[in-house]
From TrEMBL:
This protein's name: Calpain catalytic domain-containing protein
InterPro entries xref list: Androglobin-like (IPR053033), Papain-like_cys_pep_sf (IPR038765), Peptidase_C2_calpain_cat (IPR001300)
Species assigned in the record: Phytophthora fragariae
GO MF terms, alphabetically ordered: calcium-dependent cysteine-type endopeptidase activity
Gene Ontology BP term (one): proteolysis
C-alpha cells in the first residue's frame, strides 16, 4: 500500500536528490520566429485602380499668376480634358456626334475696338543723365533711327461680358425704326428698364432662344419668297440676254460668243438698268416699237420684292433651358450681403464675376490666349477651374451650351463649360446616352444630382429635398406645409393667375421682363436675430413636358394656394410669373427642393488627393490622402445662450429648434470594366445593399447620446448623406450642452470627398481627442507607437496599454466609462484588429465593438465605495491572406474617472511546437512559465495543425494553474475551435496563509489540450495511456515491433527504450503550436511535478519492499512457470538468498496444497480453488481479431442507431421550425388585418365627428 506521507524533501518543481524518470524528456522544441520581409517591399492593403482626373488648386489672387498662365494667341491654351467627355444639354444628346468644338476666333467675326481719344500728353520731363546704362535696360533707338515696330495687339472676336451701358458704344443697339440689329439684341423700351439691367446683380439680357413655331412659319414663308425672287430674276436675265444675242448677230454677222475679246464691248446693247451708261437720255426714243435693226426689244420685266418680314430674334424656347433656370434662380436669390431685404446674403461671385481675367471694373475680358480661370466652390473650397474657349457648335453653327442672346457674348457658355468640367471630375462615370444600370444612378437622381452640385458649385448654397409630412386631418392640404419656405409677400398689383405656365415671349426676348416686386414682411426684431429661411424650388422630373417645363428645369415658388387635390403653385419661370396646377399636371413628375441660405456658422471637412511630393514633374500622379481619425459634428448651444442680450426673450423662440444643413461631395474615378473591384468597393456594395445608401459614396451621421437629464429621446437621430441631396436636420434644441453626430464615411469615399455643415449655432468638425477634451467631465490620455510587419494568417498582439482608473470623488456611484479611439495607418487593417480591456484583478474581459467606441468597465468596490482599479488594454490583429507593412498607431483614451499610471508594453513573439501523442487526458503539453515569471502581460495562442493547416473541427483548450500553491489550482481556462487565444494571464489570487510564497515558487503552469467537451475527438486521438508514463518501469510485450512505430518512437524521443518494448500510441498526425507574446522572450520548462511525485512514491515503496518476502512481479512469473526469469527478477531487486528461498518455498507449498485439494472430490477448499465456471485462457491472435470484429459490428450498430436518431431529431427540428414560422406569419397577418381594421374604424370615427361638428 502507498505510504501515508511523502518525504519532506520532495518538491513540486526544482532540484531533487532523485533521478528524473526516463519519461521526463524534452517533448517540444522552440521554433525560431519566421523572417519578416522588408516593409517597403510589401504593397499597401489598398491599391487604387484609378486616379482622380484632376485636382483643382485652391483659389488665389489672379494678379499673382504669371503671364504664361493665360497663354498666347500664337499658342492658345488647350484643356487636357477632352471636350467629348463633357456633358451636353439633354436636348443635344441625340446629335452629340455632330457637335464640333471651335474657338470664338473660328466662328465669330473680328470686333473692332472703340477709337481711343488721346488725352492731353503730359509735359516732357528730361531724363537724368547717367554715368552708364543699367544692366538689363531695354534697348532704345539711336538718334535718327526709326523706332522698332510694335507688335499689333491680337484681334478680338468676342466679349466675355458686355454691360448694358456699353452696348451703344459698340453699335449693338438698334434704332426704333430698324427694329433689329445685326447682333440680335433688343433696346430696352424705357429708362426704368435700363436702370434695372444696369444693376450689379441682374443678368443684363436674355439667353439664346430657339425659333418659335410662328417664327419658323415666317422663316419658311420668307424662304419661299426668296426662291421666287431668284427664279424671276433668272427668267429676266434669260430674256434680256436672248435679245442682246440677236442684236449682236445682226451687227457683227456672227454670234456674239465668236467675237474676239478686243472687239467685245462690255456695255449691253439693251439697257436693263444694271449698268452705268448715261449716254441714253430721256429724249431718245427707246420704246419697243423702235429699233435700229428691226428687232423688237422685250418688255420690261419687274421683280416684286419679298413681302414677308424675316424674323431677326428668336422668341421660342431657351437653349439649355435647365441651366438657364438655375442661373435665374441665382439671380433672384442673390444679394450683395444685405440681410434686411429678406433674400440670400452671399459673398460668392455673381455668375460672370467668377470668370477671369477681369478689368479694373470687375468685368471679365476677352483673352486671345484662350484660357479662362473660373472661381467655383468645389469639394469644400473655392478653387480655380481652368478652361479653354472651345465651345460646342451644332451643324448650324449655333452654340449648344447656354449662351447669351448677343452671339459674341460668351460668359454663359464659359461658365457652363467650367461647371461641366467639375461635374465630370466628380462623376466621370455618368453616361447621358446609356440606360441606367446597377452601377449608375437613375435618370431623375442624376438630374437632381447635377442641379444640386451646380447650385453648390456656383454659390456654395446647399439644396435638400422636401417631402410633405403626415397630415393631421383629411381636409388639410399637405402642400400648404411648403408655405413656411415661401416668404410672406405683398403684391402692389393683383396678377392674374394663369392656369398653366405662360411665357411672355416678347418681353423675355427683349430682356426686359422683371420679377414682380416682392416686399417681404419683416418682424420688428433686430436683423441679427432673424434667421434666413430656405426657399422652395420645384424641379421637373418628367420625360415629357410637365406644365411647360422641360426635364430638369427648376422654378422658384412664391406662393401655394388651393385645396387638397387642387393645389396651385405660383412660381417664377424665366423671369415671368406662372402657375403649376396639381389638378392639371399632377405632382408625380415634380421634385420639391429647398435652397438653403448661408447660415451664420459653418465648417468644412475635406479629404482630397494631392500631387505626389516624390516627383517634381507637372504630370506626376496624385497621392491618396492619409486616413483620417474618427470625426464628430459638434453643434455648441451654450455659446449662443451667452450672447443673448439682457432682457431679450426672443432667444427662447429661436432656441426651440436647431437647423443643421450637411452636404457631401464625393469624388469618383473613371470606371474601367477590365479592372477588378478593389477591396474597398466590395464592403461598400454590401453596405449599400443592406442600408439602402448610395454605392458611389455616402456618410452616415449618428447622434451621440449622453446620459443626461436633458436628453431629448432615447433613440439617436440617424442621417444618411449621399451625393444627390443635402441633409436638412431640424431638431429640438436642449437648454445647454451640445448636439453631437458621429461620422461614418463609406469606404468608397477613399478617392476624395468633402463635407460642409452649416447651422445657426456654432458648428465644427472635431476629431475624437479634440471633442473629448472639450467635455469637462472627461480625462484624456494619448499615446502612439509603431506596429511591425505582419504575416498572412498570423495572430499578432500589437501592443498592450496598462493604466489605472481612479474615481474623481468618493460620491461616484457608477462604474467607469472608457472611450477608446485607435487610429491605424492602414485603414483596411481596422477590420482585422480587435480591442479588449481586461480587469487585472478579476480577469473579466470587455471587448470594444469598433476601434472608436465606448464601453463600461467593471470596477472594484469596498463596502459600496469604488476603489482604484487597474486595467490592461490589448490590441491584437489577425490579418487574412495578405502581408501587412509596418505602420503607426495612435491611441486616445478618455474616461469620467482619472487615468493614472499609463504604461505601453511592446510585444515580441516566442514560438514552440510539438507532436501530439494520443493519451487519455488529451494533453498536448504542460509547462511551467519560467520567464517572464510573474508578469501578467503575456498572451498565448494554441493551434492544432495537420499538414500545416489549422484543424477547425477540433477544439483547443488552454488552462492556467497556480504554481505557488501546493495543489496547483486552476485559475484560468479558455477554449475555442481550431485555435484558442489567451489574451492575458490571470492575476494570482492572494492566499489565506499569512506568509506569501517565496519568489522562486511564484509563477504559472500552462497546459494545452484537446477539449473533448466541445468537440468530437476521433478514435485515433484517444488512448488509454497516460500523458506521460508515471513509472520508470519498461513495459514488456511479446508483440513484434513495427518499423513505422519504432521510427515514430525514435522521432518522439523514445530511443532510450529497449528494442523489445514499443509504445501503444498510434500516429495521430496532429501537431500543436503555441505562440507566446510578451514584453520579453518567453521560456517554458516541462512540468514534472506528477512524475516526481510518482517517483517518490515508487522509491518509497521500493525502500519499504526490501524486507518484504512477497513481490507481485516475481509471483506472477512463478505462477506462469518462468522460474528462471523469476529468480533473475529477484536478484535484480537485490533480494537476499534467504528471501529468495522463502519466496520459492511459499510457491512450492501453494502448489502442493493445490494438488492435494484437487485429488479427493469431496473436499472443498474454495479459497484455494479456481472458479470453474469460466475458462480463463490466453487467446490467440485469430481469436482476438474475431472478438474485435464482433465488437466493431456492435459498435457499428450502435453508431447507426445514433445516426438514425440524429436524423430523426433534425427532421423534427425542421418541422417545428416550419410550424413556428407559419405561426409567426399567421400572427403577423392577423395583426396586419387588425391594424387595417383599426385604421378604417378611426377614419370612420373621424368622419362621423367631422359631420357631427
Amino acid at each position: 500500500m502507498p505510504p501515508k506521507k511523502l518525504p519532506s524533501k520532495l518538491t513540486a518543481q526544482g532540484s531533487s536528490s532523485l533521478n528524473p524518470p526516463p519519461t521526463a524528456r524534452s517533448y517540444r522544441q522552440p521554433v525560431p520566429t519566421p523572417d519578416l520581409p522588408e516593409s517597403d517591399s510589401i504593397p499597401p492593403l489598398w491599391t487604387p485602380n484609378a486616379v482622380p482626373t484632376e485636382v483643382f488648386p485652391e483659389w488665389t489672387d489672379p494678379s499673382t499668376l504669371p503671364s504664361e498662365h493665360w497663354g498666347t494667341a500664337e499658342e492658345p491654351f488647350e484643356d487636357q480634358l477632352s471636350p467629348e467627355n463633357l456633358l451636353v444639354p439633354t436636348e443635344a444628346i441625340g446629335y452629340k456626334e455632330e457637335i464640333t468644338w471651335k474657338r470664338p476666333c473660328e466662328f465669330l467675326p473680328v470686333i473692332a475696338d472703340l477709337p481711343v481719344v488721346p488725352a492731353t500728353p503730359p509735359p516732357v520731363v528730361p531724363e537724368p543723365k547717367a554715368a552708364g546704362g543699367k544692366k538689363g535696360a531695354a534697348p532704345t533707338a539711336k538718334k535718327g533711327e526709326p523706332e522698332p515696330p510694335k507688335k499689333p495687339p491680337p484681334s478680338k472676336h468676342a466679349h466675355v461680358f458686355l454691360p448694358r451701358s456699353k452696348e451703344r458704344d459698340y453699335g449693338f443697339l438698334r434704332s426704333e425704326k430698324a427694329g433689329a440689329s445685326a447682333s440680335g439684341t433688343v433696346t430696352a423700351p424705357s429708362t426704368a428698364s435700363d436702370l434695372h439691367h444696369d444693376q450689379e446683380w441682374r443678368i443684363p439680357r436674355d439667353f439664346q432662344r430657339r425659333w418659335s413655331p410662328e417664327q419658323i412659319d415666317a422663316l419658311q414663308a420668307w424662304g419661299r419668297e426668296e426662291e421666287r425672287i431668284e427664279r424671276e430674276q433668272q427668267n429676266r436675265e434669260r430674256v434680256y440676254m436672248g435679245f442682246e444675242d440677236a442684236i449682236a448677230y445682226i451687227v457683227n454677222e456672227r454670234p456674239r460668243d465668236l467675237l474676239a475679246e478686243v472687239d467685245f464691248d462690255a456695255d449691253d446693247l439693251v439697257d436693263d438698268g444694271e449698268d452705268e451708261d448715261e449716254a441714253i437720255t430721256g429724249d431718245v426714243d427707246v420704246s419697243n416699237a423702235t429699233s435700229p435693226w428691226g428687232v423688237v426689244p422685250p418688255p420690261r420685266i419687274e421683280v416684286a420684292p419679298n413681302s414677308v418680314y424675316k424674323p431677326e430674334i428668336p422668341h421660342g424656347e431657351i437653349v439649355h433651358a435647365d441651366m438657364a433656370s438655375y442661373f435665374r434662380i441665382v439671380e433672384q436669390l442673390y444679394t450683395s450681403g444685405d440681410e434686411s431685404i429678406g433674400v440670400f446674403p452671399n459673398s460668392a461671385p455673381f455668375l460672370w464675376q467668377a470668370i477671369y481675367p477681369q478689368d479694373s471694373s470687375g468685368h471679365p475680358v476677352y483673352n486671345a490666349g484662350g484660357k479662362y480661370s473660373v472661381k467655383l466652390f468645389v469639394c469644400g473650397r473655392w478653387r480655380r477651374v481652368d478652361v479653354d474657349d472651345r465651345l460646342p457648335l451644332d451643324s448650324d453653327g449655333n452654340v449648344v451650351y447656354l449662351a447669351s442672346s448677343m452671339k459674341n457674348e460668351v460668359w454663359p457658355s464659359l461658365l457652363v463649360k467650367a461647371l461641366y468640367k467639375v461635374m465630370y471630375w466628380l462623376h466621370p462615370n455618368y453616361n447621358q446616352s446609356a440606360e441606367p444600370d446597377a452601377r449608375s444612378i437613375s435618370l431623375v437622381d442624376g438630374m437632381c444630382q447635377r442641379m444640386v452640385q451646380i447650385m453648390l458649385t456656383l454659390t456654395s448654397w446647399k439644396v435638400s429635398r422636401w417631402e410633405p409630412g403626415i397630415s393631421q386631418s383629411f381636409s388639410e392640404n399637405i402642400y400648404h406645409q411648403l408655405q413656411q419656405f415661401v416668404p410672406r409677400t405683398q403684391q402692389p398689383e393683383q396678377i392674374d393667375e394663369p392656369s398653366e405656365l405662360s411665357l411672355e415671349a416678347d418681353s423675355a426676348a427683349d430682356g426686359t421682363a422683371e420679377i414682380p416686386p416682392v416686399v417681404e414682411e419683416m418682424d420688428d426684431k433686430p436683423a441679427t436675430q432673424s434667421r434666413p429661411k430656405p426657399r422652395a424650388v420645384i424641379c421637373s422630373a418628367g420625360r415629357d413636358r410637365v406644365a411647360d417645363l422641360v426635364f430638369g428645369e427648376a422654378v422658384l415658388v412664391i406662393d401655394v394656394v388651393g385645396d387638397t387635390g387642387n393645389t396651385t403653385f405660383k412660381v417664377v419661370h424665366q423671369g415671368s410669373p406662372a402657375a403649376i396646377s396639381e389638378e392639371v399636371t399632377g405632382v408625380n413628375d415634380l421634385v420639391f427642393l429647398l435652397v438653403h441660405p448661408l447660415l451664420q456658422y459653418s465648417d468644412t471637412f475635406v479629404r482630397a488627393w494631392l500631387p505626389n511630393p516624390e516627383s517634381s514633374l507637372e504630370g506626376a500622379p496624385l497621392a491618396p490622402f492619409e486616413t483620417s481619425r474618427v470625426h464628430f459634428v459638434v453643434v455648441t448651444l451654450q455659446d449662443r445662450v451667452a450672447e443673448q442680450p439682457a432682457g431679450d426673450n426672443s432667444t427662447e423662440i429661436s432656441h426651440k429648434y436647431v437647423n443643421l444643413v450637411a452636404t457631401l461631395t464625393p469624388v469618383q474615378v473613371p470606371y474601367n470594366p477590365d479592372q477588378s473591384v478593389d477591396n474597398l468597393s466590395k464592403p461598400s456594395a454590401l453596405t449599400a445593399t443592406y442600408l439602402g445608401v448610395d454605392p458611389n459614396g455616402s456618410v452616415i451621421l449618428i447622434e451621440e447620446k449622453e446620459k443626461k437629464e436633458n436628453s431629448r429621446s432615447s433613440l439617436p437621430v440617424i442621417v444618411t448623406l449621399n451625393s444627390t441631396f443635402s441633409g436638412y436636420i431640424n431638431i429640438p434644441a436642449v437648454d445647454t450642452g451640445s448636439i453631437v453626430y458621429r461620422m461614418y464615411p463609406q469606404n468608397t469615399l477613399r478617392y476624395g470627398y468633402s463635407m460642409q455643415v452649416e447651422s445657426d449655432y456654432k458648428v465644427a468638425f472635431q476629431d475624437a481627442p479634440t471633442y473629448w477634451r472639450s467635455l469637462s467631465n472627461l480625462r484624456v490620455m494619448e499615446c502612439d507607437g509603431t506596429y511591425p510587419v505582419m504575416l498572412p494568417g498570423s495572430w499578432n498582439v500589437i501592443f498592450k496599454q496598462s493604466f489605472e482608473l481612479s474615481p474623481l470623488t468618493e460620491e461616484n456611484v457608477s462604474p467607469p466609462e472608457l472611450r477608446i479611439d485607435l487610429h491605424l495607418t492602414e485603414e483596411l487593417l481596422g477590420s482585422f484588429t480587435h480591442i479588449s480591456v481586461v480587469n487585472d484583478f478579476t480577469g473579466e474581459v470587455k471587448r470594444a465593438a469598433t476601434l472608436c467606441s465606448k464601453i463600461s468597465l467593471p470596477a472594484a468596490s469596498n463596502d459600496g465605495v469604488f476603489t482604484p482599479t487597474t486595467y490592461t488594454l490589448i490590441v491584437d490583429c489577425a490579418p487574412g491572406d495578405f502581408h501587412v507593412r509596418q505602420g503607426k498607431w495612435k491611441l486616445t483614451l478618455a474616461s469620467d474617472w482619472d487615468i493614472t499610471k499609463p504604461t505601453t508594453h511592446q510585444m515580441k513573439m516566442t514560438r514552440y511546437e510539438g507532436v501530439y501523442e494520443p493519451n487519455k487526458p488529451l494533453l498536448c503539453f504542460r509547462d511551467v512559465i519560467m520567464a517572464p515569471k510573474n508578469s501578467i502581460w503575456t498572451s498565448f495562442q494554441l493551434q492544432l495543425l495537420q499538414d500545416g493547416a489549422v484543424v477547425n473541427n477540433l477544439a483547443a483548450k488552454l488552462e492556467v494553474f497556480d504554481l505557488g500553491t501546493e495543489q496547483n489550482p486552476k485559475i484560468g481556462e479558455v477554449s475555442a475551435k481550431g485555435d484558442v487565444r489567451l489574451l492575458q494571464l490571470p492575476c494570482i489570487p492572494a492566499g489565506e496563509v499569512s506568509q506569501p510564497p517565496v519568489d522562486d515558487k511564484r509563477g504559472y503552469i500552462l497546459q494545452g489540450s484537446i477539449d473533448r467537451s466541445t468537440c468530437i475527438v476521433p478514435d485515433e486521438l484517444n488512448s488509454l495511456r497516460p500523458f506521460r508514463s508515471s513509472t520508470g518501469r519498461t513495459p514488456v510485450t511479446t508483440t513484434p515491433v513495427d518499423e513505422n512505430e519504432s521510427s515514430e518512437a525514435a522521432a518522439s524521443g523514445e530511443s532510450n527504450l529497449p528494442a523489445t518494448a514499443r509504445s501503444s500510441r498510434g500516429s495521430s498526425g496532429i501537431k500543436w503550436r503555441v505562440n507566446c507574446w510578451s514584453t520579453e522572450e518567453v521560456k517554458l520548462l516541462e512540468d514534472n511535478t506528477k512524475e516526481l511525485q510518482y517517483e517518490a512514491i515508487r522509491a518509497s515503496w521500493a525502500e519499504k519492499a526490501v524486507d518484504r518476502t512477497t513481490n507481485g512481479a516475481v509471483s506472477r512469473l512463478l505462477y506462469l512457470g518462468k522460474l528462471d526469469q523469476a529468480e533473475a527478477k529477484m536478484k535484480q531487486d537485490n533480494m537476499t538468498d534467504e528471501q529468495i528461498a522463502k519466496v520459492r518455498g511459499r510457491f512450492e507449498w501453494v502448489q502442493a496444497v493445490k494438488s492435494k485439494v484437487a485429488a479427493p472430490e469431496g473436499i472443498s477448499e474454495s479459497y484455494l480453488e479456481q472458479d470453474g465456471t469460466g475458462d480463463e485462457k490466453l487467446l490467440s491472435e485469430d481469436e482476438l481479431a474475431e472478438s474485435r470484429h464482433l465488437l466493431l459490428e456492435r459498435i457499428g450498430v450502435v453508431e447507426a442507431d445514433k445516426e438514425q436518431r440524429r436524423v430523426a431529431r433534425a427532421l423534427a427540428k425542421e418541422e417545428r421550425a416550419k410550424e413556428l414560422k407559419n405561426m409567426f406569419r399567421t400572427v403577423i397577418e392577423k395583426r396586419t388585418v387588425s391594424l387595417k381594421t383599426q385604421q378604417e374604424l378611426k377614419r370612420e370615427l373621424a368622419a362621423v365627428q367631422t359631420r357631427s361638428a
